[in-house]
Amino acid sequence: YLVGDTRGIITEAAKKACFICYKMGATISCCQTGCGRTFHLPCAPDGQCVTQYFGTYRSFCGEHSPRQMLQPRPSQDNTCTICLDTVEDSISNKTMGCPACQDARFHRQCIQRLALHAGIAFRCPRCLNQEPFMVEMLTMGIRLSKRPPSWETDQDVGPSDQRHGRCDAATCLCPEGREHAEADGPWQLWLCSSCAAEGTHQHCSSLGTSTNSWECNTC
Question: With contact defined as beta carbons under 8 Å apart, do 201 and 173 qualify?
């Protein structure tokens, strides 16, 4: 029954077009009642879609995604609290903020990377608030990790030139071998965003050009 059910889902998805890339095989549907938009998971960032990684794992298209309701920023400092690069003047899908201090601003990609590395210690990088902050980030589609912080578990990490440098995909497709890596393209080497102890070539794990991070099977 489960196999037949899965086949039915795959068959049905093959008939649906992604509203972002317009290609068929979109398996994710917006959960908003009356919305018929479907999309591929790798296309979600380009369409400003949000998937909530808790509860029933609801997904929303860009039009119906949850919005943060924050007060005007007290400091008016238009920099990301994490990477210190410029952020947008207003809150959006790509620029988020802390609901507790109302002051911290950060890029979605930056806070997602921090969430995966911080694990159970995840909190606002400015005011250090944890519970309301975590609830807000979950609602806004940030995926959290139940692991200990990476800076507590990665005690054997050596200098930067000793970072993991091979493809660990079950089948490496690179003609130059697992240790070959290029700065861009299909043979770019991605490290696990949680542990950085495993890697994969972009092509070997079928990562799209819009993919922001990759996580190994162990994590």
Answer: yes
Amino acid at 26: A
Same domain, 101 and 77: yes
Which CATH number belongs to the domain containing residue 188 in this structure?
3.30.40.10
Mean pLDDT per 10-residue interval, the chain, length 219 residues: 52 80 91 94 91 92 94 76 90 93 92 90 93 95 88 52 74 89 87 78 83 72
Instruction: Give CA–CA dist 132/62, Å, rounded.
Output: 24
Between β-strands 38-39 and 50-51, what pairing exists: parallel, antiparallel or unpaired?
Answer: unpaired
Beta strands in 59-173 (DSSP E): 59-60, 95-97, 105-107
Nearest to 87 by CA among 99, 100, 103: 103
Query: Is 162:195 a contact under the CB 8 Å cutoff?
Result: no
